[in-house]
Design goal:
PAAI_dom, six-stranded antiparallel beta sheet, Thiol Ester Dehydrase, Chain A, 136 residues, hydrolase, globular, alpha+beta, 22% helix
């Protein structure tokens, strides 16, 4: 089942996000993105802040789905490593909850190309908060 909150948000349209699936046991979500040509820098790859946006999106939705859409993370920090250039076109994101406490949560995200090569990864420390707009 696709999550309408993901698909309907204006920033999701900008990022070209599509829900793929959620693994409840692993607390891991898979989202698909489409990086448009407008995200590409003169170097030929997606601008780094926009790569961070893909990773932020996939980490956040991992927590939302892991809490049955009751909570959303409020980031305290995000650390990102760019391992290979992220090119225009399809990108696959995997986000997971590493550890969830009552006051702090730890999240991880990865971006892959269609061939499965790891392009970027990130971690986030966040505060669990009630999800704006309530349950889906």
């Amino acid at each position: 089942m696709a999550d309408n909150a993901i698909l309907g948000a204006p920033h999701a349209k900008l990022l070209g996000v599509k829900f793929d699936h959620f693994d409840k046991d692993r607390e891991e979500i898979t989202l698909r993105f489409h990086a448009p040509d407008s995200f590409i820098t003169p170097r030929g790859s997606v601008q780094g802040g926009l790569v961070a946006g893909f990773l932020d999106e996939v980490m956040g939705w991992a927590h939302v789905w892991a809490t049955d859409h009751e909570e959303a993370p409020l980031n305290l920090d995000i650390s990102m490593s760019l391992l290979k250039p992220v090119m225009a076109g399809p990108v696959i994101g995997k986000g997971r909850v590493i550890r969830r406490g009552r006051k702090v949560i730890f999240l991880e995200g990865e971006l892959f190309d269609e061939a499965g090569k790891l392009l970027a990864r990130a971690t986030s420390t966040a505060i669990p908060t009630p999800r704006p707009g309530g349950s889906a």
